[in-house]
Design goal:
This protein has 19 helices and 21 strands. The chain is an alpha+beta fold and 568 residues long. The protein folds into three domains: 138 residues, Periplasmic binding protein-like II (D-Maltodextrin-Binding Protein, domain 2); 152 residues, Alpha-Beta Complex (Dipeptide-binding Protein, domain 1); 235 residues, Dipeptide-binding Protein, domain 3 (Roll), CATH 3.10.105. Helix 12 packs antiparallel against helix 14 and helix 18 runs antiparallel to helix 19.
Length: 568
């Protein structure tokens, strides 16, 4: 990408729409980077964080999902434009009422030579439901697989639950039948998300408890690559081409050598030295790359899909006895933050200041093609950089709470990119400067520690992110229903819950346009109540060896896919 094509404000118009970024990467001459030469070494790729587990029930981050998807196929996979196309299954048969999906599996096998069967999916899906981990909601709330909602409710309540009643059946080795509670028109696109991937039951049960997915010996592949070198928590891992893959003839990349790089400075150094072919940079390094004649045409900006935001604990357990349950206090916070300054001065990689609960340019209406969040001013009455308004909300909050000063702690990950620490510091400075009487202490920790504190409701304010798992606003709006595992603020609103229920199992299920309008109503409640404070939608400023072609970038589900990648 040439220097004059790069736009920090409009990155999604340029490259974030998936396949366009892979075409841009093909432009220009060879860089000479050693990680991607033609000598069979494959390519060297940067990871932002350590991969802690390759177990689809335990993995919760994009880096882990990327590696899992390298090695395991789902029933469907993504094409370059993000559409669902057949993978382990041929095109599914769907009943007239949309509630029964029948998948016919192709001939494929695991890396230990055993065939992939319909029971591999039955076993894996039942396990997800039984364990009720972070992504179990994909089976119940989103996928609406028959009996999954009731099973989830019973399991969370500690009641007896028979997961064999889950609406997934192996009719025979090659036929998987899935029954749904209600029609889910985008069900096929869910099938490329790792939560729905298969696991070989015989192999899994032969392992010691807790060891699945922790080494090449405890992990089976049925995808384009096999895991060849991996230890949880270490800084590197390697996957190599799976010669027994059902579509091996269309995979030419011999290997991917992943390396965890903790800073943008180190990423730039690794790229310049040739040890890595694909890295992400941020901050001042992006501006430097724009001005560097040797780097400018290797800079490719893609939409990462993630939205960064603040979440507030609203329980009495935290935040000075639950002070952040006060709506006006939260509204004061969200109007005291200068988001444009955050992306221009601290993130600096093309990320987009965001003023909606659903980020822009990943979910478009099937009826009109309009982006759900194209209008970033639709909630300007509730969110924006308006110090006068923030102070008015703050005065109202002080009167309602009967106090004049507040001291909270903002937690953030210190291993989630250089810009995260800078953003946390900037938020502290802005809020303390604009809301006299607020002290916002900073507490840095690993991402894993941050997630633990949020899940255990042991925090005041958290700087966190969420990436879309599928191309529908519900991937965000579903988080804030009462008692959802990802509702870290423990906010509860009966009207909101009813709207979301109507959109998933009720009145709007069969009326697409009415559902779309109702989702907007739900988002309006989130913004009126300042349930979260949206900050910015993340872009990735990538440096890519021009010899490496065909990496597919997606803002939804799987950010990078390498099946069609080649090295010149």
């Amino acid at each position: 990408m040439s220097k004059n094509m790069f736009s920090r404000r409009n990155f999604l118009k340029l490259a974030a729409a998936t396949g366009s970024a892979s075409m841009l990467a093909a432009c220009g001459g060879g860089s000479g980077n050693g990680g991607g030469d033609a000598a069979g070494k494959g390519i060297g790729v940067m990871l932002g964080t350590n991969v802690m587990s390759l177990d689809t029930d335990l993995a919760t981050d994009g880096d882990s999902f990327e590696v899992i998807a390298d090695c395991i196929d789902g029933l469907m996979q993504m094409d370059a434009d993000g559409a669902a196309i057949p993978a382990l299954a041929e095109k599914p048969d769907v009943s007239d009422d949309g509630c029964k999906w029948t998948f016919h599996l192709r001939d494929a096998k695991w890396s230990n030579g055993t065939p992939v069967t319909a029971n591999d999916f039955v076993f894996a899906w039942r396990r997800i439901v039984q364990n009720q981990g972070e992504y179990a909601y994909m089976m119940s709330d989103i996928g609406q697989i028959k009996n999954a909602p009731a099973l989830a409710k019973a399991i969370v309540a500690g009641e007896d639950a028979d997961v064999t009643t889950l609406g997934v059946t192996a009719v025979d080795d090659k036929t998987l039948e899935v029954e749904l509670e209600v029609p889910v028109p985008y069900f096929d696109s869910l099938m490329y998300f790792p939560t729905f991937y298969p696991i070989n039951e015989e192999f899994y049960t032969s392992l010691d408890d807790g060891t699945y997915g922790t080494s090449p010996d405890t992990f089976l592949s049925c995808g384009a690559f096999v895991l060849s070198d991996y230890t949880p928590g270490t800084a590197s891992l390697t996957v190599t081409k799976n010669e027994d893959y059902w579509d091996a003839a269309n995979v030419s990349l011999p290997s991917i050598n992943y390396q965890v790089v903790g800073s943008s400075d180190n990423a730039l150094t690794a790229f310049k030295s040739g040890s890595l072919d694909v890295v992400m940079i941020g901050g001042n390094q992006v501006a430097a790359a724009e001005e560097d004649a040797d780097l400018a045409d290797k800079l490719v900006v893609t939409g990462a899909g993630y939205m960064w935001y603040l979440t507030f604990s609203q329980t009495e357990k935290n935040a000075q006895g639950g002070m952040l349950a006060n709506k006006n206090l939260r509204l004061a916070f969200t109007n005291a933050i200068d988001r444009e300054a955050l992306v221009d001065n601290y993130v600096m990689d093309g990320s987009l200041a965001t003023y909606t609960a659903v980020p822009p340019q990943f979910a478009a209406s099937a009826s009109t093609g309009e982006d759900f969040s194209a209008d970033q001013e639709k909630f300007k009455d509730y969110i924006g950089y308006d110090v006068e308004k923030a102070q008015k909300y703050f005065e109202d909050a002080k009167k309602e709470l009967g106090v004049d000063s507040f001291e909270f702690t903002l937690i953030f990950g210190n291993n989630e990119g250089d810009e995260v620490t800078k953003v946390a510091q900037a938020i502290k400075e802005q809020i303390e400067a604009n809301l006299s009487g607020v002290t916002l202490n900073l507490q840095a920790m690993t991402k894993a520690e941050r997630l633990d504190k949020m899940q255990e409701d042991n925090y005041d304010v958290a700087l966190t992110r969420w990436g879309p798992d599928y191309a529908d606003p519900m991937t965000y709006l579903g988080m804030w229903i009462t008692n959802n595992a990802n509702n870290y603020g423990f906010w509860s609103n009966e009207e909101y819950d009813k709207i979301i229920a109507d959109c998933t199992t009720g009145a709007y299920v069969s009326d697409y346009d009415a559902r779309w309008a109702a989702l907007y109503d739900a988002e309006t409640l989130v913004m009126q109540e300042a349930v979260i404070a949206p900050l910015y939608t993340k872009a990735n400023a990538n440096l890519i060896n021009p010899d490496v072609q065909g990496i597919e970038f997606h803002p939804v589900a799987l950010n990078r896919v390498y099946k069609n990648t080649t090295v010149a």
